[in-house]
Amino acid sequence: MKRRNGSSDSLLTKAGGELDDRFKLAGPARVLFNKVFPDHWSFLLGEIALFSFILLLLSGTFLALFFEPSMVEVTYHGAYVPLQGIEMSRAYESALDLSFEVRGGLFMRQMHHWATLLFMASILIHMLRIFFTGAFRAPRETNWMIGILLFWVGFFEGFFGYSLPDDGLSGTGLRIMEGMTASVPFIGPWASAALFRGQFPGTDVISMIYIIHVFIFPLILLALITVHVALVFIQKHTQWPGPGRTEHNVVGFRMFPNYVMKQVGFMLFIWGVIAAMAGLFQINPIWLFGPYEVSVVSSASQPDFYVMYLDGLIRLFPAWEFRVPPYFTLPAVFWPAIAGMGLSVLLPLVYPALERRFTKDRGHHNLLQRPRDNPGRTSLGVMVVVFWTVGAVSGGNDVFAEKFDISLNAMTWAGRIGIVILPIIAYYLTYRICLGLQQHDREVLAHGLETGILMRDPNGRFYEVHQPLAEPDEHGHTELEYNGWVVPKKMNRVGALPPTDRGFFKSIEEPSENGAARDEIESGKH
Amino acid sequence: MSAHTDSARDEGAAVDLSDPKLTRFEVYKEGLRRDDIEIIHYEPRFAKPGTKAEKRMERIVAGLFLLSGLFATLFVVAFIWWPWEYEGAATWRDPQTWYTPVIGFTLGFSLLFFAVGVLTWAKKLLPIEELVQDRHDGGSSKEDRRIAESTVDTIVDDMGLRRRPFLVKSALLAAAPLGLAAVAPLGALIKDPADMYTVTGWNAERYNDGEPIRLMMKDGALVRPDMVSAGGQITVYPAIDHGATNQFPTAPTLLIHLREADAAKLRENLYPMYQDVDAIWGNFVAYSKICTHVGCPASLYEQQSQRLLCPCHQSQFNVVDNAAPVFGPATRHLPMLPITVDDEGYFVATSDFLVPPGPAFWNRPSLPEEDEK
């Protein structure tokens, strides 16, 4: 036993030695193994996007083996009976074959689509986390901007992806994109003619967006993701404030084995969820939509969720067209689509610089802020979220109108008014809530926790017993400073009064270990 | 192997690595020290190795791994042998309808079991640890900066960038067209939009040797007045080669047979430009089907309110008022196709649309006739 252990040890040492002789690894490897990572669940949101992206590369490669980006007109003779004998593009036919006549093809298609939705959703949630905690502040503005670019490249990558099958829905999306493109001042019609090699839809657009979808954009995404992750690594992760945590250290656990094992587990978990969803939940059943024909559309034609807010803005924007007779026209769609999208790219990109300018805060920040401690920023963020949500809901307003039996025009007007009014209300309410939460933190620090125990003094006055967090002065006040981290708000957060009602289905009444302390409080000694 | 807080803090100084009495853990801690890491807390998850609780946790993790392997095997078996070929409409009893759910379920759960196994291993068996590492935020040291500056300055001076301004200027002057040359090949994509927005499949000069173009249905059948009952509508296309395909994306037209009262209303409202060419025939009117907002087919015809609705962005057009927009984001009416009936009793278009159909574009000529309201 001993000998075998010894020999395997020496084998490992020998292999390590051989590697180190060639690559000089001992130093850098140690630095890597020992690197300390802070721990908080919200730091893993970006990882969901990373792991979905890996799965997107894998499943996309499978799809590319079978998909043909060709707009050659063919007659369908495949397995799906309802479409047999119908004229369609080769792209749509091969997408149908992929769904019906390739082993596991439908599963892969659905996996690719679900992974995309998860990719975009996790980027959004991740960016909200970064925004609301102030993690984008110096020295991390560059990574914030890379993140914004990642979202927008992903946005178009996804849009082009679901445009590829050339089914009825994807053609409708391209049709709308063409209308948006042609509205751009001066270059619009030329840009549209370049994209579609002449008049929409032409016969080239699928092969053009195919090379963008499978090569150019994935390459850009891969490059941006690499720099993004490298910068997180070099600049080190932010951390929440807390005991022992300062601007100048990182408190957490080592990269090996703890962090890496959790990462691998989390990656497999994400993949498992996506694989199960791909098998169990249908997504984008292209065979139901038929081939794209310019004269056919159905109601409830919705884009994927990350495009919906833009579609909603286009629906809500009033019919304002500016004309310079007889030569020029600025179509209504220009404002929500081109100007709106431009601002959606630009404003988040420059936000860190704007905040630096207006707060004159030029320091480096490695400790995160609780959203309540920066009410202005938090309210602004909630305002954007509400604006986005009204837009996204309006992007499906025909579905809401139908399912809930509301007038379609009423939905549109509600959206038009709501998108102006609701963000302002949201700003005000969020600001007040933040201030209220701040106030309550200070209150607990000064007066102690509410115990829920009501007492009556001999004069008949009722009062609630408070549990101070430190030794109080003669007025019952404590001088505790707020350090930017969670202030305990309940007695069981400070170790007293564990939950009285234990048990899942029925209570298991047990005398608590802190029974004595509770008795003391109840008898008014505190 | 458990190290305590205090002992870790005391050892600020380097240890002598040549000391033969050093334990492995002491050498390891020297590595941490060199990376500016300090152990705050480090203890095994189970105080006593080999306890019942530890063994139980080990068995759980091993069980999860084995389950994962089992499901992965099931996935491969199902992927190969489960009947998968689509055979037309089937009920839930036919095994091929379960192919995708079965492989998704087995692969998904295989991954999930492995994931939970690894996570349980990390969370329940690894030592409880908390370490703190210095961050070294901010720029390089003053020394490093000074050295870097001198290096850059030396390079700049070696090249003579300051002494030879003419070289720099000429290089920049050459770089501009060179950059242009790099992107110039993309110019191959540029195509003159010419009249692609203004000429449609209804243009007789271009597509039918000047003969008026008849109206046909999707299947090629020519359209006669008796084919549409009052209050009804059909989609028509120019009766030319490929007239009903995507080659003529702005040609699809909605032919509506109005009831007498509605037709009277329309005649009353008719724009002068359409009156001049006698655009409607009897109670029949033809509107471009392509929405003037961003080009979806405005194809939902509401007979009661005489409205056409575009399902993409809910623009609504009033059929008895030149299909002028009455709600939603569209700003212009759906152009009317002037129609009549030829000697043989078929509908023909007397000309192309008078204004460009479909979405607006930047250099769309806006004619005064469009603002007659």
Structure description:
The complex is a heterodimer of chains A (526) and B (373). By secondary structure, chain A is mainly alpha-helical. Chain A folds into two domains: 35-242 and 255-297 and 306-369, Cytochrome Bc1 Complex, Chain C; 448-522, no CATH class. In chain A, 59% of the residues lie in helices and 6% in strands. Chain A has helices at residues 2-23, 26-34, 45-66, 90-100, 105-132, 141-163, 168-182, 188-195, 205-235, 255-280, 305-316, 334-359, 375-395, 397-403, 408-447, 515-522, and strands spanning 36-37, 73-75, 87-89, 249-254, 322-324, 328-330, 449-456, 462-467. In chain A, the strands form four sheets. In chain A, strands 1-4 form a two-stranded antiparallel ribbon. In chain A, strands 2-3 form a two-stranded antiparallel ribbon. In chain A, strands 5-6 form a two-stranded antiparallel ribbon. In chain A, helix 5 (105-132) packs antiparallel against helix 6 (141-163) and helix 5 crosses helix 10. Chain A is globular and about 90 Å long. Chain A starts with a helix and ends with a helix. Chain B folds into four domains: 5-43, no CATH class; 52-133; 142-188, no CATH class; 204-371, Rieske [2Fe-2S] iron-sulphur domain (Rieske Iron-sulfur Protein), CATH 2.102.10.10. In chain B, the strands form three sheets. A six-stranded antiparallel sheet of chain B has the order 6-5-4-3-12-11, with no helix packed on it. In chain B, strands 7-8-9-10 form a four-stranded antiparallel sheet, with no helix packed on it. Chain B is built from nine helices and twelve strands. Chain B is an alpha+beta fold and 373 residues long. In chain B, strand 9 and strand 10 (324-327) form a beta hairpin. Classes of the chains: A mainly alpha (526), B alpha+beta (373). Chains A and B meet through helix 2, helix 5, helix 7, helix 8 and strand 4 of A and helix 2, helix 4 and strand 2 of B.
